[in-house]
Structure formats: structure tokens, C-alpha cells
Amino acid sequence: MNDEDKTANQLQPRKSGRLHPVFVTVAGGDDEQRAALKAVLNQINELDIQFVGVEATSGKRAERAVILMTILDKGNQDGWRRELRTRNPNQQFTSVVALVSDPSPASLRAALRAGADDVLGMPPVPEQAFHTLLRMSEQSRLGEGIHEKMVCSLVSVSGGVGVSHLTVSLALAIHRLFAKRTAIMELDLQAAPLAVLLNVEAEHTISELADPTTTIDSIRLESVLCKHESGLYWLAAPKKIEEAELVSAATVESTLKVLRELFDVVLIDCGTHLTESSIVSWELSDHLLYVLDQTVTSIRSAQRFLDLYHRLGVKDAEPSFVLNRHAADNPITIERIEAALQHGVFATLPRDDRSFGEQQVTGTDMWKIPSATLLRESLESLARKLCGPAGQEEAGARAGLFSRMLAGIGISRGAKNGTD
Hints:
alpha/beta, Rossmann fold, 16 helices
């Protein structure tokens, strides 16, 4: 919060009739526009509006509900999605209100499609601003504890390192340790490994959500979720490989937003084939885990992934590296891996071929396999890092840029063969 905002809050008497203040951050536009917006909001006597600076929530979700009111650049509708994502990294604000100088239906529609929760003309009419802020503040109060929710993407560009297996095992660990409602979203749409790992044939799949003419809401999503005997829920990949092409990045984005509302924890198996949907999942995730093993090819792939990740500029936060199937006697040590990546290893999981093989053959989870003690302990440790108190504290150019980059270097959109 800057000195101007602090002084304004100190001079503002607490308005009567409201037990809970409404925290608002004003962004975008020039100084005159922001001052005009604050003047309008100060006319709303029915709400205790308190202004906070952008830096008060930077780097993580705010511990209190904060509404972002952002003035969009009038002449850059095509860049509004990037503007909103840049000003609301990691979804740190609970709600986003866009303000547009041209309140035409086309502008309102463009702002909503860019990701705004509501749109007002600039400057707004006080009565309209009151209704919008009141509704959003009440929704935030009803959703108290939303900061405790967690979305985590798991990815690798090196096949055979155990991304899908880790996704399932980590979901089971979180579900058992914290009794959280946990769901898995399968984005490895062509390989579709989760049906094998969970030992369940899915009745419904994500392809049933691919119709762009209908809205994805909780009722529609719940109708296609599969429930595992452990209590986990999962959204399965299409039954046919060719149906994977029907699932767009927009479908994935809408689905993830609803999943976050329905579940405490959502894990996303991104597989090893990067797509526009992968980028969407990273942007909407609190954690991004990159899985690798003790091979030169895996480490090289991780370096290439880091290079792409930084060039895309998806998020300020760095991905966390998980070393899977670690063997202490391997000459490629953790220290050498960290030196090569110039990043520390976030978590290490031991190599346990016997337990892994038994799970593959019988479909039994790790908590029912006697030989998997060390692996279970490591999985539980990783779960605590992500969902325990410490994990909670740590906790726009996306699709178009990714497509242009791929087109520019001549990479086709064809799927990468292989299973995990």
C-alpha cells in the first residue's frame, strides 16, 4: 500500500451498517481515471470500502478477500486477456471487475470473455458499482477458506518418468492425510493412463464437456466425474484417441475453474505432450511440479522445459522439481542434477520397482502394499509440503503465444507417442 492509500484509509471514518469491510484494489488507466473511480466508490455510503495497493497481495493469494477493479485500455480489446492475467497473477484477487470507456455490448462481451467477473462503464454509476461490490463481497464471505484450496499440475517432457503414477499416488496421499475432497483431471488425453492406474473403466469422459455452446457448471461437471473406491474423483480422458482433438483449451479452463469450486484439491496429470491446455493448467495452478529421473535425457528435457517456460512468461513463480525413482548409488546424484538445472530439487521419491510392479498388476494402491513403506513416507512428505501450513503459505499471451511459437519453429500439433 502506498502513502496515498494509507492516508486515505486513515482519514476515512468507518461507515455504519457494515460489519465487514470491502477491500478494493484499483489498477489500470492513468492517475486521473483512477482518482475518478475512487471518487465514485467513496460516494457509496452503504459499504465500508477500503483501498489496498497491488503490492499488498503480490506473490500469493491474499489472506483476505480483495476485489480488483481494473480500467482496461480502450483501444486494445485483443490484449484484454493478457492485461487481466498480468494484473491478477495466480488468481490472487477473489474477483475482477473490468471498467471500459465504451460500454457497448461488444466491449462488455469482450471483457467478460477476457476473464472479468463483471464489467462496468468508466466512470461507473455509483448505484451499479454498489450492487457489483456488494454481490462480490457477499460471495467472498460465503467462500471463506477458498485460499486453502489447491490446484497442482504435474508435467514432464520426458516419457517414462512416472508423471501419471505420481499424480494418482499423490492424490491418494493427500486424501488420506488431510481428508480433503480430491479430484484428478487427466490431460494426457491420448495415452489416457489413469484408467489403468486406478483400475477403473470410466463411464464418462472430458469429451462430454467439449460442446462450446453450453456452459460448464457444477451440475454438468458432476455428471461426467468418475468416483474411485478410495473416495477420489477423476475426470477421465476421451475413450478414443481422435476425440482428444475436440477438447479445447477453453474447455479445460472452464472445467478447472468449476473443479476448484467443487473440490479442496485438484491434481492435473499434464502428461508429456505439451499443448495449449497444458499452459492453461499451469496458469490456474498454485503449484507446478516437473517430474524427472536420474538420466541424462530426462535432465536435458527438464532444461528445455525451463527454457520454454521462461520464454512463455506464464507465471513469475518457478516450477518445482520432483526427482522420481531415486537411487542413492546412481552416479547422477541430486547435487549434479541441481547444478545442471540451477534449481533445487523440491522432493525426492525412492525407486521401488517391486511395489510399482505389484501396483501395476493388481491395481492396489501403495497404502495396501507392505513393501512400499519408504515410498509411502516420501509421498506423504510431498503431500505435506503442498497442503500443510507451509505449503499454503508458499502457495496473457498464453494460448496464442504458444501456438505462434510452435508454428514459428515448425513443430506440428501431432501427438507425441508413448505411455507413462
